[in-house]
User: Which sequence fits this backbone?
Protein backbone atom coordinates (compact mmCIF):
# COMPACT_ATOMS: atom_id res chain seq x y z
CA UNK A 1 0.00 0.00 0.00
CA UNK A 2 1.30 3.41 -0.92
CA UNK A 3 0.17 5.41 2.09
CA UNK A 4 1.71 8.65 0.90
CA UNK A 5 -0.78 9.07 -1.93
CA UNK A 6 -3.84 8.02 0.01
CA UNK A 7 -3.82 10.73 2.58
CA UNK A 8 -6.94 12.80 2.89
CA UNK A 9 -6.32 16.17 1.33
CA UNK A 10 -7.29 18.71 3.98
CA UNK A 11 -8.34 21.33 1.46
CA UNK A 12 -10.05 19.41 -1.29
CA UNK A 13 -10.39 22.35 -3.65
CA UNK A 14 -9.16 20.35 -6.57
CA UNK A 15 -9.78 21.78 -10.02
CA UNK A 16 -11.95 19.40 -11.97
CA UNK A 17 -13.01 18.84 -15.56
CA UNK A 18 -16.25 16.93 -16.25
CA UNK A 19 -16.91 14.77 -19.29
CA UNK A 20 -20.22 13.27 -20.40
CA UNK A 21 -20.39 10.78 -23.25
CA UNK A 22 -23.39 11.02 -25.55
CA UNK A 23 -24.09 7.92 -27.60
CA UNK A 24 -26.40 7.91 -30.61
CA UNK A 25 -29.36 6.47 -28.67
CA UNK A 26 -29.02 9.02 -25.85
CA UNK A 27 -31.39 11.96 -25.45
CA UNK A 28 -29.10 15.05 -25.59
CA UNK A 29 -31.22 16.88 -23.01
CA UNK A 30 -30.94 14.02 -20.52
CA UNK A 31 -27.18 13.92 -21.01
CA UNK A 32 -27.02 17.66 -20.31
CA UNK A 33 -29.31 17.40 -17.24
CA UNK A 34 -27.21 14.61 -15.84
CA UNK A 35 -24.02 16.62 -16.45
CA UNK A 36 -25.57 19.66 -14.72
CA UNK A 37 -26.41 17.48 -11.75
CA UNK A 38 -22.88 16.03 -11.76
CA UNK A 39 -21.52 19.61 -11.71
CA UNK A 40 -23.51 20.24 -8.52
CA UNK A 41 -22.34 16.96 -7.04
CA UNK A 42 -18.67 17.67 -7.78
CA UNK A 43 -18.97 21.15 -6.25
CA UNK A 44 -20.66 19.61 -3.20
CA UNK A 45 -17.69 17.23 -2.94
CA UNK A 46 -15.51 20.33 -2.63
CA UNK A 47 -13.89 20.55 -6.07
CA UNK A 48 -13.90 23.53 -8.43
CA UNK A 49 -15.45 22.71 -11.79
CA UNK A 50 -13.26 24.37 -14.42
CA UNK A 51 -14.91 22.97 -17.53
CA UNK A 52 -17.62 20.56 -18.63
CA UNK A 53 -17.77 18.84 -22.01
CA UNK A 54 -20.11 16.49 -23.86
CA UNK A 55 -18.35 14.03 -26.14
CA UNK A 56 -20.31 12.33 -28.92
CA UNK A 57 -19.28 8.75 -29.59
CA UNK A 58 -20.87 5.74 -31.26
CA UNK A 59 -19.44 3.45 -28.58
CA UNK A 60 -16.98 3.49 -25.69
CA UNK A 61 -13.32 2.90 -26.46
CA UNK A 62 -12.33 -0.31 -24.62
CA UNK A 63 -8.96 1.09 -23.55
CA UNK A 64 -9.54 4.81 -23.13
CA UNK A 65 -13.33 5.16 -22.98
CA UNK A 66 -13.18 8.30 -25.14
CA UNK A 67 -11.13 9.12 -28.22
CA UNK A 68 -7.50 10.21 -28.19
CA UNK A 69 -8.47 13.51 -29.86
CA UNK A 70 -10.64 14.45 -26.88
CA UNK A 71 -8.00 13.23 -24.45
CA UNK A 72 -5.46 15.53 -26.07
CA UNK A 73 -7.89 18.41 -25.74
CA UNK A 74 -8.29 17.62 -22.04
CA UNK A 75 -4.53 17.45 -21.75
CA UNK A 76 -4.11 20.90 -23.20
CA UNK A 77 -6.84 22.33 -20.92
CA UNK A 78 -5.03 20.58 -18.11
CA UNK A 79 -1.76 22.30 -19.05
CA UNK A 80 -3.50 25.71 -18.92
CA UNK A 81 -5.67 25.21 -15.86
CA UNK A 82 -3.79 22.60 -13.80
CA UNK A 83 -6.68 20.20 -13.46
CA UNK A 84 -6.27 17.56 -10.76
CA UNK A 85 -9.40 15.58 -11.38
CA UNK A 86 -11.36 14.36 -14.40
CA UNK A 87 -14.89 13.16 -13.63
CA UNK A 88 -16.65 11.03 -16.21
CA UNK A 89 -20.46 11.06 -16.04
CA UNK A 90 -20.73 7.30 -15.83
CA UNK A 91 -21.58 5.34 -12.72
CA UNK A 92 -18.47 3.26 -12.88
CA UNK A 93 -15.45 3.07 -15.13
CA UNK A 94 -13.52 -0.18 -15.58
CA UNK A 95 -10.33 -0.21 -13.48
CA UNK A 96 -8.16 -0.80 -16.56
CA UNK A 97 -9.70 2.23 -18.26
CA UNK A 98 -9.08 4.32 -15.16
CA UNK A 99 -5.44 3.27 -15.16
CA UNK A 100 -5.01 4.05 -18.88
CA UNK A 101 -6.77 7.40 -18.60
CA UNK A 102 -4.82 8.45 -15.52
CA UNK A 103 -1.55 7.54 -17.18
CA UNK A 104 -2.46 9.43 -20.36
CA UNK A 105 -3.84 12.52 -18.63
CA UNK A 106 -1.55 12.63 -15.60
CA UNK A 107 -4.40 13.31 -13.17
CA UNK A 108 -6.99 11.37 -11.21
CA UNK A 109 -9.99 10.00 -13.06
CA UNK A 110 -13.23 9.06 -11.27
CA UNK A 111 -16.88 8.31 -12.08
CA UNK A 112 -20.16 9.48 -10.58
CA UNK A 113 -20.25 6.78 -7.90
CA UNK A 114 -16.97 7.93 -6.34
CA UNK A 115 -18.27 11.50 -6.15
CA UNK A 116 -21.49 10.44 -4.42
CA UNK A 117 -19.60 8.18 -2.03
CA UNK A 118 -17.24 11.04 -1.27
CA UNK A 119 -20.09 13.42 -0.45
CA UNK A 120 -21.59 10.79 1.83
CA UNK A 121 -18.20 10.34 3.51
CA UNK A 122 -18.04 14.07 4.26
CA UNK A 123 -21.65 14.25 5.43
CA UNK A 124 -21.68 11.25 7.73
CA UNK A 125 -22.18 12.44 11.30
CA UNK A 126 -23.71 9.69 13.40
CA UNK A 127 -21.90 6.48 14.23
CA UNK A 128 -24.41 4.59 12.10
CA UNK A 129 -24.06 6.71 8.97
CA UNK A 130 -20.27 6.57 9.28
CA UNK A 131 -20.38 2.78 9.33
CA UNK A 132 -22.84 2.71 6.43
CA UNK A 133 -20.68 4.99 4.30
CA UNK A 134 -17.43 3.21 5.05
CA UNK A 135 -19.06 -0.12 4.24
CA UNK A 136 -20.32 1.24 0.91
CA UNK A 137 -16.88 2.62 0.06
CA UNK A 138 -15.06 -0.59 0.89
CA UNK A 139 -17.59 -2.70 -1.03
CA UNK A 140 -16.98 -0.41 -3.99
CA UNK A 141 -13.20 -0.50 -3.74
CA UNK A 142 -12.69 -4.21 -3.08
CA UNK A 143 -13.46 -5.63 -6.53
CA UNK A 144 -11.59 -2.77 -8.19
CA UNK A 145 -8.30 -3.02 -6.31
CA UNK A 146 -6.88 -5.70 -8.59
CA UNK A 147 -7.36 -3.66 -11.74
CA UNK A 148 -5.72 -0.70 -10.08
CA UNK A 149 -2.60 -2.66 -9.20
CA UNK A 150 -3.60 -2.99 -5.56
CA UNK A 151 -3.34 0.73 -4.95
CA UNK A 152 -6.34 3.00 -4.68
CA UNK A 153 -4.78 5.71 -6.76
CA UNK A 154 -1.32 6.72 -7.74
CA UNK A 155 -2.27 10.27 -8.46
CA UNK A 156 -2.91 12.20 -5.29
CA UNK A 157 -5.68 11.67 -2.75
CA UNK A 158 -8.67 13.94 -2.27
CA UNK A 159 -12.03 13.08 -3.74
CA UNK A 160 -12.76 9.37 -3.75
CA UNK A 161 -10.14 8.49 -1.16
CA UNK A 162 -11.61 10.09 1.93
CA UNK A 163 -13.11 7.91 4.60
CA UNK A 164 -15.94 9.03 6.87
CA UNK A 165 -14.78 11.64 9.36
CA UNK A 166 -11.06 12.24 9.34
CA UNK A 167 -10.13 8.65 8.68
CA UNK A 168 -8.10 7.32 5.81
CA UNK A 169 -9.66 4.63 3.69
CA UNK A 170 -8.31 1.13 4.08
CA UNK A 171 -6.68 -0.03 0.86
CA UNK A 172 -5.20 -3.40 1.70
CA UNK A 173 -7.27 -6.30 0.39
CA UNK A 174 -7.11 -8.55 3.44
CA UNK A 175 -7.74 -5.66 5.80
CA UNK A 176 -10.71 -4.55 3.73
CA UNK A 177 -12.31 -7.98 3.92
CA UNK A 178 -11.83 -8.09 7.68
CA UNK A 179 -13.08 -4.55 8.09
CA UNK A 180 -16.22 -5.22 5.98
CA UNK A 181 -17.18 -8.11 8.19
CA UNK A 182 -16.59 -6.07 11.38
CA UNK A 183 -18.67 -3.19 10.03
CA UNK A 184 -21.50 -5.54 9.03
CA UNK A 185 -21.62 -6.92 12.57
CA UNK A 186 -21.83 -3.42 14.02
CA UNK A 187 -24.64 -2.52 11.61
CA UNK A 188 -26.57 -5.65 12.54
CA UNK A 189 -26.42 -4.62 16.15
CA UNK A 190 -27.68 -1.11 15.36
CA UNK A 191 -30.42 -2.56 13.17
CA UNK A 192 -31.61 -4.79 16.04
CA UNK A 193 -31.68 -1.75 18.30
CA UNK A 194 -33.75 0.13 15.73
CA UNK A 195 -36.21 -2.75 15.64
CA UNK A 196 -36.65 -2.50 19.40
CA UNK A 197 -37.22 1.25 19.21
CA UNK A 198 -39.75 0.74 16.42
CA UNK A 199 -41.58 -1.87 18.51
CA UNK A 200 -41.82 0.52 21.42
CA UNK A 201 -43.41 3.03 19.07
CA UNK A 202 -45.74 0.51 17.52
CA UNK A 203 -48.91 2.27 18.55
CA UNK A 204 -47.87 5.62 17.13
CA UNK A 205 -48.81 6.68 13.63
CA UNK A 206 -45.56 6.93 11.73
CA UNK A 207 -44.66 8.59 8.47
CA UNK A 208 -41.40 8.93 6.55
CA UNK A 209 -40.57 12.06 4.58
CA UNK A 210 -38.93 10.98 1.34
CA UNK A 211 -37.80 12.75 -1.79
CA UNK A 212 -35.04 13.72 -4.14
CA UNK A 213 -31.99 15.25 -2.50
CA UNK A 214 -32.35 18.98 -1.74
CA UNK A 215 -36.16 18.88 -2.25
CA UNK A 216 -36.73 20.41 1.20
CA UNK A 217 -37.52 17.33 3.32
CA UNK A 218 -35.68 18.56 6.43
CA UNK A 219 -37.12 22.06 6.07
CA UNK A 220 -40.62 20.60 5.88
CA UNK A 221 -40.13 18.53 9.03
CA UNK A 222 -38.72 21.62 10.76
CA UNK A 223 -41.80 23.53 9.73
CA UNK A 224 -44.16 20.81 10.95
CA UNK A 225 -42.29 19.96 14.14
CA UNK A 226 -40.85 23.42 14.82
CA UNK A 227 -37.51 21.74 15.27
CA UNK A 228 -34.05 22.52 13.98
CA UNK A 229 -32.78 19.80 11.70
CA UNK A 230 -29.73 20.26 9.52
CA UNK A 231 -30.85 22.18 6.46
CA UNK A 232 -28.45 23.26 3.76
CA UNK A 233 -28.61 24.17 0.11
CA UNK A 234 -26.41 21.23 -0.66
CA UNK A 235 -27.00 17.75 -1.92
CA UNK A 236 -27.30 15.08 0.76
CA UNK A 237 -27.37 17.39 3.78
CA UNK A 238 -29.17 14.65 5.71
CA UNK A 239 -27.75 11.15 6.01
CA UNK A 240 -29.40 10.13 9.24
CA UNK A 241 -33.01 9.27 9.77
CA UNK A 242 -34.12 11.50 12.62
CA UNK A 243 -37.63 11.05 13.95
CA UNK A 244 -39.66 13.98 15.24
CA UNK A 245 -43.04 14.23 16.90
CA UNK A 246 -45.55 16.41 15.08
CA UNK A 247 -48.51 17.74 17.01
CA UNK A 248 -51.60 17.95 14.80
CA UNK A 249 -54.32 18.59 17.41
CA UNK A 250 -55.16 17.50 20.96
CA UNK A 251 -56.19 14.05 19.72
CA UNK A 252 -53.49 13.52 17.17
CA UNK A 253 -49.72 13.43 17.22
CA UNK A 254 -47.71 11.64 14.58
CA UNK A 255 -44.08 10.64 14.23
CA UNK A 256 -42.25 11.85 11.14
CA UNK A 257 -38.87 10.50 10.09
CA UNK A 258 -36.48 12.48 7.92
CA UNK A 259 -34.59 10.32 5.42
CA UNK A 260 -31.58 10.43 3.15
CA UNK A 261 -32.36 11.94 -0.26
CA UNK A 262 -32.51 9.94 -3.47
CA UNK A 263 -30.70 10.76 -6.68
CA UNK A 264 -30.47 9.34 -10.21
CA UNK A 265 -28.19 6.32 -10.43
CA UNK A 266 -27.78 6.00 -6.70
CA UNK A 267 -24.87 3.58 -6.32
CA UNK A 268 -26.08 0.07 -5.47
CA UNK A 269 -23.43 -0.19 -2.74
CA UNK A 270 -24.95 2.77 -0.97
CA UNK A 271 -28.47 1.42 -1.08
CA UNK A 272 -27.26 -1.88 0.32
CA UNK A 273 -25.29 -0.21 3.08
CA UNK A 274 -28.11 2.16 4.01
CA UNK A 275 -30.59 -0.68 4.48
CA UNK A 276 -31.20 -0.05 8.17
CA UNK A 277 -31.89 3.65 7.57
CA UNK A 278 -34.10 2.84 4.62
CA UNK A 279 -36.00 0.33 6.74
CA UNK A 280 -37.60 3.37 8.35
CA UNK A 281 -39.29 4.01 5.02
CA UNK A 282 -40.40 0.41 4.67
CA UNK A 283 -41.90 0.34 8.17
CA UNK A 284 -43.67 3.70 7.96
CA UNK A 285 -47.49 3.78 7.93
CA UNK A 286 -47.46 6.44 5.23
CA UNK A 287 -45.04 8.55 3.20
CA UNK A 288 -44.80 12.25 2.49
CA UNK A 289 -43.06 12.56 -0.87
CA UNK A 290 -41.52 16.03 -1.19
CA UNK A 291 -40.90 17.24 -4.74
CA UNK A 292 -38.99 20.45 -5.53
CA UNK A 293 -41.19 22.25 -8.04
CA UNK A 294 -38.30 24.51 -9.08
CA UNK A 295 -36.13 21.57 -10.14
CA UNK A 296 -35.18 21.34 -13.80
CA UNK A 297 -36.52 17.86 -14.13
CA UNK A 298 -39.53 17.67 -11.79
CA UNK A 299 -40.97 14.54 -13.37
CA UNK A 300 -37.57 12.86 -13.68
CA UNK A 301 -36.82 13.50 -10.00
CA UNK A 302 -40.23 12.27 -8.90
CA UNK A 303 -39.92 9.12 -10.99
CA UNK A 304 -36.43 8.42 -9.64
CA UNK A 305 -37.79 8.51 -6.09
CA UNK A 306 -40.77 6.34 -7.02
CA UNK A 307 -38.48 3.77 -8.63
CA UNK A 308 -36.32 3.60 -5.50
CA UNK A 309 -39.42 3.26 -3.32
CA UNK A 310 -40.65 0.42 -5.50
CA UNK A 311 -37.24 -1.24 -5.17
CA UNK A 312 -37.50 -0.90 -1.38
CA UNK A 313 -40.98 -2.43 -1.59
CA UNK A 314 -42.28 0.66 0.22
CA UNK A 315 -45.12 1.53 -2.08
CA UNK A 316 -47.94 -0.34 -0.37
CA UNK A 317 -48.97 2.63 1.77
CA UNK A 318 -50.59 6.02 1.38
CA UNK A 319 -48.33 8.64 -0.20
CA UNK A 320 -48.96 12.35 0.22
CA UNK A 321 -47.32 14.19 -2.64
CA UNK A 322 -46.11 17.64 -1.52
CA UNK A 323 -44.78 19.96 -4.22
CA UNK A 324 -42.43 22.22 -2.29
CA UNK A 325 -40.73 25.58 -3.00
CA UNK A 326 -43.90 27.00 -4.58
CA UNK A 327 -42.68 30.42 -3.40
CA UNK A 328 -39.81 30.18 -5.88
CA UNK A 329 -41.73 28.64 -8.80
CA UNK A 330 -43.50 30.49 -11.62
CA UNK A 331 -47.35 30.57 -11.59
CA UNK A 332 -47.28 28.64 -14.90
CA UNK A 333 -45.16 25.86 -13.37
CA UNK A 334 -47.54 25.62 -10.41
CA UNK A 335 -50.56 25.49 -12.68
CA UNK A 336 -48.99 22.69 -14.73
CA UNK A 337 -48.32 20.71 -11.55
CA UNK A 338 -51.86 21.20 -10.24
CA UNK A 339 -53.36 20.02 -13.53
CA UNK A 340 -51.09 16.98 -13.71
CA UNK A 341 -51.53 16.10 -10.00
CA UNK A 342 -54.97 17.28 -8.88
CA UNK A 343 -54.79 15.51 -5.54
CA UNK A 344 -51.27 16.64 -4.66
CA UNK A 345 -50.47 19.45 -2.22
CA UNK A 346 -48.53 22.47 -3.35
CA UNK A 347 -46.81 24.79 -0.89
CA UNK A 348 -43.63 26.01 0.67
CA UNK A 349 -41.84 24.67 3.70
CA UNK A 350 -39.90 27.94 3.81
CA UNK A 351 -42.83 30.36 3.89
CA UNK A 352 -45.39 28.02 5.42
CA UNK A 353 -47.89 28.22 2.56
CA UNK A 354 -49.81 24.99 2.04
CA UNK A 355 -48.73 23.68 5.44
CA UNK A 356 -52.23 23.88 6.93
CA UNK A 357 -53.53 21.77 4.05
CA UNK A 358 -50.74 19.26 4.69
CA UNK A 359 -51.61 19.16 8.39
CA UNK A 360 -55.26 18.43 7.63
CA UNK A 361 -54.24 15.75 5.12
CA UNK A 362 -52.13 14.19 7.89
CA UNK A 363 -55.06 14.42 10.26
CA UNK A 364 -57.35 12.72 7.70
CA UNK A 365 -54.85 9.91 7.29
CA UNK A 366 -54.57 9.48 11.02
CA UNK A 367 -58.36 9.40 11.42
CA UNK A 368 -58.74 6.89 8.63
CA UNK A 369 -56.26 4.64 10.41
CA UNK A 370 -58.13 4.99 13.69
CA UNK A 371 -61.38 3.97 12.01
CA UNK A 372 -59.64 1.10 10.26
CA UNK A 373 -58.17 -0.10 13.57
CA UNK A 374 -61.53 0.12 15.31
CA UNK A 375 -63.22 -1.80 12.50
CA UNK A 376 -60.44 -4.42 12.41
N1 LIG B 1 -37.38 28.82 -1.85
C1 LIG B 1 -37.52 27.75 -1.06
N2 LIG B 1 -36.44 27.08 -0.62
C2 LIG B 1 -36.63 26.01 0.17
C3 LIG B 1 -37.92 25.58 0.57
N3 LIG B 1 -37.79 24.47 1.33
C4 LIG B 1 -36.47 24.24 1.42
N4 LIG B 1 -35.76 25.15 0.72
C5 LIG B 1 -34.31 25.25 0.59
O1 LIG B 1 -33.84 24.13 -0.13
C6 LIG B 1 -32.58 23.72 0.35
C7 LIG B 1 -32.62 22.25 0.73
O2 LIG B 1 -33.45 22.07 1.86
P1 LIG B 1 -33.34 20.81 2.81
O3 LIG B 1 -34.50 20.87 3.74
O4 LIG B 1 -31.97 20.66 3.36
O5 LIG B 1 -33.58 19.66 1.74
P2 LIG B 1 -33.48 18.08 1.95
O6 LIG B 1 -34.51 17.48 1.04
O7 LIG B 1 -33.59 17.75 3.40
O8 LIG B 1 -32.03 17.81 1.37
P3 LIG B 1 -31.02 16.57 1.64
O9 LIG B 1 -31.04 16.22 3.08
O10 LIG B 1 -29.73 17.18 1.18
O11 LIG B 1 -31.46 15.46 0.74
C8 LIG B 1 -32.25 24.64 1.53
O12 LIG B 1 -31.44 25.68 1.06
C9 LIG B 1 -33.62 25.16 1.94
O13 LIG B 1 -33.53 26.42 2.56
C10 LIG B 1 -39.06 26.33 0.08
O14 LIG B 1 -40.21 26.06 0.37
N5 LIG B 1 -38.78 27.40 -0.72
MG1 LIG C 1 -32.27 16.83 4.59
Assistant:
Amino acid sequence: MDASVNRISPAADQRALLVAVQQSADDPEEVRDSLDELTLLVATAGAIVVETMVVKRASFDPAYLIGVGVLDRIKSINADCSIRLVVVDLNTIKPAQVRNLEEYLGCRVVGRTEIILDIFARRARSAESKIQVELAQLRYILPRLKGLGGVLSRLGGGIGTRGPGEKMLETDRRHIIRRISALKKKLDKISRHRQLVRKSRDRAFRGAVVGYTNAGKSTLINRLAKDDLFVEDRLFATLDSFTRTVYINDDTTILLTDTVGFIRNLPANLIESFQSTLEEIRHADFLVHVVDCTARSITGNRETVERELARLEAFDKPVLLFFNKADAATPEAIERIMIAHPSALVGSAATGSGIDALRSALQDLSERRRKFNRAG
User: Anything to note?
Assistant: The radius of gyration is 22 Å.
